[in-house]
Design a protein that fits this description.
This protein has helices at 15-64, 100-106, 133-140, 183-188, 214-221, and strands spanning 77-86, 90-97, 116-119, 145-146, 157-166, 194-203, 224-238, 241-256, 258-262, 275-279. By secondary structure, it is α+β, with helices and mostly antiparallel strands. The strands form two sheets. Strands 1, 2, 3, 4, 5, 6, 7 and 8 form an eight-stranded mixed beta sheet that branches. Strands 9-10 form a two-stranded antiparallel ribbon. The protein is elongated. The relative contact order is 0.14.
């Protein structure tokens, strides 16, 4: 009996074919890895712009309405600096810090001892500027230009209001409650997305002033304001100096109402430091 053996050939890739496959996959991975940072940066920019757009609407409405009952604002505003200047005395700063840590981090140095600093979460602080929404909104509502009570135009103040704010919208992990007595709480704030917000509140101006309707237009200027918010981000500090990145957006609106001034009982002589609030339901007719 004759036996026949059949040899079955097994199909497989050769070493050359495997090397070619690895080379093609390597080129594809290099392309993917090269595009990945671009995609991540685009996602980061989109996230930051979404936060800015949402926070801008929040701040516009809060300032327009003189909102003093937003209790959570104290957990988001780190610094408010008001730089005032006129032709006689030059410029000086009124700066509020949310706790001594921020004062150390920023490292503002008083120019010729004319700057005033307030650690507003300190129990012995004479000014409680950042411990309530009432004071925060009152500080942010300082007008861009304010006439001196004496009527001397040389003493009229030009104010620049700057706030360093942690994002109000966004991830909850970036929103720990501020505890001035806890080092861990303050350290956790470093992971939050921050932006610099410049507030400009200007009364409505009508030209020419010698027109037949000048009186009516001046009266309108008493109760109509242009509100401009400029956002710059991200925020970081280099050797105690504030720096911002390339992100920048500007938002504008108009608001009609009375700019109410609340005297500061602890420093009654500081006419330039009194808190102010926009009240949209208050109007008084003034005849020329």
């Amino acid at each position: 009996m004759k036996t026949t053996l059949f040899l079955r050939r097994s199909a497989a890739f050769t070493m050359i074919e495997l090397a070619l496959c690895i080379a093609v996959a390597g080129f594809a991975l290099v392309a993917i890895i090269g595009v990945l940072p671009t995609g991540m940066n685009a996602q980061k920019r989109n996230r930051e712009e979404t936060i800015i757009n949402a926070d801008a609407q929040y701040w516009l409405e809060a300032i327009r309405n003189g909102s003093v009952d937003l209790r959570d604002l104290v957990d988001y505003v780190d610094i408010i600096r008001i730089t005032s200047s006129n032709r006689l005395t030059g410029s000086y700063d009124v700066t509020h810090f949310a706790g001594p840590r921020w004062k150390t981090l920023v490292g503002f140095s008083p120019p010729q001892n004319r700057a005033r600093f307030f650690d507003d979460l300190s129990p012995g602080s004479a000014h409680q500027g950042l411990v309530s929404a009432t004071n925060i909104i009152g500080l942010l509502s300082q007008p861009k230009v304010f006439p001196h009570p004496s009527g001397d135009s040389r003493r009229n103040l030009t104010n620049e209001v700057l706030a360093i704010v942690r994002a109000i919208t966004g991830s909850a992990i970036e929103k720990p409650a501020r505890d001035p007595h806890s080092a861990n709480s303050e350290a956790a704030l470093d992971f939050a997305f921050k932006y610099a917000m410049t507030v400009e509140l200007l009364p409505y101006a009508a030209f020419p002033l010698d027109s037949p309707d000048a009186g009516r237009l001046r009266n309108m200027g008493n109760y109509l304001y242009d509100l401009k918010l400029t956002f710059e981000w991200p925020v970081f500090f280099v050797e105690g100096k504030l720096r911002t990145g390339q992100g920048r957006r500007v938002f504008r609106t108009q608001v009609a109402g009375n700019l109410y001034q609340e005297p500061n009982s602890s420093r009654p002589g500081d006419w330039d430091y009194n808190r102010r609030y926009l009240r949209r339901d208050e109007f008084v007719t003034k005849h020329p």
